[in-house]
Amino acid sequence: MEKLYTIPVQDAFNEKCECPVCKMYESLENNAIEFVMGPSYMEDDVRMETDKIGFCSKHIRMMYANQNRLGLGLMLKTHMDKTIKDLEELAKNDAPVKSGLFKKNTGESAVTAYINKLTNSCYVCNRIKDIFERYIETIFHMYKTDEVFRKSFAESQGFCTEHYGLLRSLAPAKLSGDKLTSFTEQLDKLYIENMKRVRDDVEWFTDKFDYRNADKPWGTAKDALPRAVIKTNGIKIE
């Protein structure tokens, strides 16, 4: 496995965080946003793709926060030009598909199909997807071959629910024998024990609103809510 992938994976597991897989994805997201909002937005091949597929709600918010308003404006203008042109053409000869009183609509109009495809596509998501999949492959490869990584894995603070499920579902296809057994057992333990740890912090966070606990120490509960949001939804909030 290329060091191009092993280094960021090891770095994520070395960092104290509630989900190292989220940490890897966050890094890829930030890099992708920097790429899109940098000089690349003027490149014809990049603009052709952004015009065609646009951006999801999450990543358009991140692009807006990047502060390159000129770059974003230029991309949105040409994306809107293409969307208007395509939908004007499709709408000319596209009658709505009707369903009968007792039968379901079994098709969709060309306009609806175009919009459904557009609203479920994102240039940034696509740019991240292949590298993120390689990162996941690398986790299993390093677990099989690297004792240092296995130690980092075992000492991590668990995973968010989504990435726990992802790793658990892929494990039987990536590992076998004792490695599969140990990986699954460690993964389950890491997820459950650390969910309980954060759950307990959230409980103490809420208990601190009781006046009787006002003078008691926060312990590790002061930032319980953002950590709980990572655990439950895989989302980092400031």
**Topology as H/E string?**
HHHHHHHHHHH
User: What is the straight-line distance between the termini?
Assistant: 34 Å
Topology, number of strands: 0
Radius of gyration: 23 Å
Domain tally: 2
The level of helicity is over 70%
Percent of residues in beta strands? under 5%
User: How does the major sheet shape up?
Assistant: none
Please give the oligomerization state of what you see.
single chain
The pLDDT mean sits at 92
Classification by helices and strands: mainly alpha
Identify low-pLDDT runs: none
Count of separate DSSP helical elements = 11
Identify the overall geometry. Answer: globular
Descriptive overview:
The chain is 71% helix and 0% strand. The chain is built from 11 helices and no strands. It folds into 2 domains: 8-145, no CATH class; 157-238, no CATH class. It has helices at 3-14, 20-37, 44-53, 57-65, 69-92, 110-119, 123-145, 147-154, 161-174, 177-207, 224-233. The model has no long low-confidence stretch (mean pLDDT 92). The radius of gyration is 23 Å and the shape is globular. With 238 residues, it is mainly alpha-helical. Helix 2 (20-37) runs antiparallel to helix 7, helix 7 (123-145) crosses helix 8 (147-154) and helix 10 runs antiparallel to helix 11.
